[in-house]
Amino acid sequence: MTPLRTEALAPRLKSFPAPSLIMSLFILNSELVFPPVQLSEPDGLLAIGGDLSTQRLLLAYRQGIFPWYEGQHILWWCPDPRFVLFPEELKESKSMKQLLRRNAFDFRINTAFREVINNCKTISRRGQESTWITDEVRAAYTRLHEAGYAHCAEAWLDGELVGGLYGIRLGKVFFGESMFSKTSNASKYAFIAYVQQLRKEGVELIDCQVYTEHLESLGAKMISRERFIGLLDQLIE
Prior knowledge:
Layout: E1 2-5, E2 24-28, E3 45-49, H1 54-62, E4 66-70, E5 73-77, E6 82-85, H2 94-101, E7 106-109, H3 113-122, H4 135-146, E8 150-157, E9 160-170, E10 173-181, H5 186-200, E11 205-209, H6 213-216, E12 221-223, H7 225-235
Parallel strand pairs: 2-3, 10-11
Antiparallel strand pairs: 1-2, 3-5, 4-5, 6-11, 6-12, 7-8, 8-9, 9-10
């Protein structure tokens, strides 16, 4: 693991705040180790390279690090502050409460993981030309699902999967990765129903990674990276 000057990489980093043009970045090799998250760049970028093996991904999540592809590069991030949701602070609008009360969608868990991640990979998103979910990412998280770490929540309507999300569950933490919706309120319905279920199962923290207005409306907020890492130490055995 060695530092790298990454001026040439800067134009690729469009999914997060623009990094400084000159910075030091760690290159990962086959060794299963990450640099301390406190060495991240101001935008949260920590390292490049390595692989998406199950062992490396689990090590990353336990340390508050997550991967994000740009082009052919695996980039590893640990932003400060961190966007999270505490399940007890979940916000449900009056309209969503009504949808949940009348079971507007058929809510399911872990019945169609491959379909969920495929939809997250291919769904068209406003203001986003491409997806970070490559074929390699899809294969890696499918392996995590088969190993019991990656989970999905689904919203079905008339026998069709119309919304959902997937992420990683470690101890009392759920790390959200991506969601999709094919019809109005489907992903929000799946998210709220899943947060309610996770809370019943003892989950105390949901990692939303980076800010979105959508998740803020559901109760997510920023906390310091220091506090986030401290919570991981407490909640992941």
